[in-house]
Structures are given as C-alpha cells and as structure tokens.
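Extended Data, panel c. Modelled sequence:
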Amino acid sequence: MKLLSRITPAETILIQQGSAAQLKDLLKFTFMDLLLKQVLKIVTENKQLHPRNEARLYTYVETGKNFEKYVPRHHEVIFLKPFTQEASIQILFKHFVKITYEASSGKRSYRESIKRSKELTSYFNDSFFISLFRFIKLTEAGKKAHQEITTYLREVNLQINDLLKNDQKKALEFLIAIGGNIFLLQNLDFDLLKKIDKVLIEQQRSIYTSVDSYGDDWYLYGDFYDDNCLFDCEFEDHESFDSLFSDTMDSFDSEFDASSCSSWDSGCDSGCSSCGGCGGCD
C-alpha cells in the first residue's frame, strides 16, 4: 500500500484513531520507528557507579548510524534534539523518555505536530473552529485512507507469519512497503525476520530503487532487514529477537507512566489536581 510506505506509525495511528490516539502510543511508536531506521539506537552497559555498590545493567539511548543524514518530521524532532549539539552523548533510557514526554507539550500539541506532516495535508479538516479547539476531524480523503489502512493492516497481520515461513518474497514486499508500521502488526513474529534470505533482500532493494512510489525512508528499513542488528549486539541477554522489541516497548510504557501524570494524557483542561498541580495538561 503506497500510503503506508510514506507515513510513520504515529501518522497512521492518528488517521486510524483521531482524537482517541493516546500520547504514550504516539511517542512510543515514533521512538520504535527511529530505532528501526537506525537513526537512534539502544545500548546496555554493565557499570559499577560506586565501589560499595554492585555492578548494574544500565540502558542508554544514543545516535544510530543514520542520524547525521536523516531529515526528521515535525513530530520526530523532540527525539533527536537532545543529540543535536553533541551527537556522541549517551542518555539514560528513563531520562530520555522523560525528556521527550516533557518536550511533547501534551497530547493535543503533539497531535498537531503530527498533522503538520506533508503526507497528511489532505486527510485532516483544518477549518478555523476545528483548528482553534484542536479537534481531529478527517476529510473525505482521510476517511477513505482510514478504511484502506485498516483493511490492509488487517490483511497483512493475518498473513505475515505464514508468508515469512512459506513465501519470503511476498512477506518482504509487505514489510518494506509498510515501513515502521510493522510495530502496529499484533501477530508479527520478529524472530522470523532474522531468517529472511539476504539475496532476496538485495533483489528487493534493486526493485525499490527503480520505483518512485515508495517513501523516502524505504532504504533505511532495507538496511534493517539486511543486517538484522537494530539494537546492535548489546542485547545478547534477550531470549529472542522478538523479546527485544516487546521488552523495549514495555520499558517505554513503564518509564512514560513514571514520567507522566494521568490527567495530562487523558486530556484534562483544568489543571492537574490529581498529581499535585504539575501543570502538565494540554
């Protein structure tokens, strides 16, 4: 599907869920997409910060091999900004989630940054009153895109694992065409990605190079399938490639919940009395 090859997971979620899209999901899947494109990466280090303490495993976020050449979309900037002055720094994972959460300025503001994508201009109604109250309302084109995306992802979700086992060419066509939206597939067994034939990947690269209907980021996703080293090799403690992804998303959820106040993400409009007046509302 051409549209899914051009939009990020956060943009897909906004088309599908509109005002119901939660800040945690929008941030989490944006982060995962940047990891997939190797713009950012996660590393773990065993450190003993004090002689009297035992060594512990610490998780950091740092720039990936594609950081310098990547042109971020509006909603991705907050993830990359901490590295713009010094790309070589490491940021503790829990601190990184807190930084991006605070930089998002809340659910409504972050949704607006997603809507600014050039790929979405025809899908959302931006009349004066809708823009004033930051409502999410689809145009007719947006409603059509919503239906097509929902149908297509459902089809891929049902078929993908069987295709990875029996028809890797077709599976790879599906996966590269939907880019980072693979994280929206509930059934995908990520461990099967490691078994894709490298020759087949190179063949697909040559096909996509000659076709201009795919998004600008397709070659970054191709890199991932080629080296299967999204988080490099520091994650040897994971039982499987699949657990690497699921554990990272679970960790993001946990750190987000620790950083946020429930009133902010639920879209309150009258302060944050439930969390001590943190000022974190939309």
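Residues 230-236, 262-282 have pLDDT under 50 and may be disordered. This feature is highlighted in the accompanying rendering.
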